[in-house]
Amino acid sequence: MNLGLSTTLHTSFDDAVARTRAALSEQGFGVLTEIDVRATLKAKLDANMEDYLILGACNPPLAHEAVGVDRQIGLLLPCNVVVRRNPDSDAEVIVEAMNPQLLVQVTDEPALQPVATRAATKLQAAIDSLGASNHSL
Fold first, then answer.
1. Contact 54, 21 (CB under 8 A)
2. Distance from C-alpha of 17 to C-alpha of 124, rounded to nearest angstrom
3. Burial state string for 3-28 with b = 16 or more CB within 10 A and e = fewer than 16
4. S-S: 92 plus which of 20, 34, 57, 86, CB 3.0-4.6 Å?
């Protein structure tokens, strides 16, 4: 099983972030958290790296259903979506979303399967919409 669902965009980092937020919103996800890994590593370790942003995406109805099945599922929520510049190519930005099927695999809770399937379908649609509108700036 793949850890993530992904696409590669040929655009600016800021455009990729904006498009990712919009694509998630269209599928009912809000962004609850944002971690700028590049800025954090620079501030804490004086380490340099490429643009790397982690968005904590949540679809409230799906999260509610998942927590209703297993209260500990909150340890695996929200779904992480990473927007990162390809370290080997300044012209490419990679967008990756956590594969929700991992929720079922990690918990070994079959009742989470329908929720994970719906979440995976929505996240895949968001990723696919980014690839369908891929363009250079």
1. no
2. 16
3. ebbbbbbebbbeebbebbbebbeebb
4. 86
Asked if 39 and 18 touch (Cβ cutoff 8 Å), the reply is no
Contact 124, 24 (CB under 8 A): no
Tokens of 124: 């895949």
Would you mind telling me the total number of residues written for the chain in this entry? Answer: 137
Nearest to 130 by CA among 55, 76, 46, 78: 55
Question: What does the pLDDT read at residue 136?
Answer: 44
Q: Among 98, 80, 119, which residue's Cα sits nearest to residue 5?
A: 98
What tokens appear for 119 in the block? 């979440």
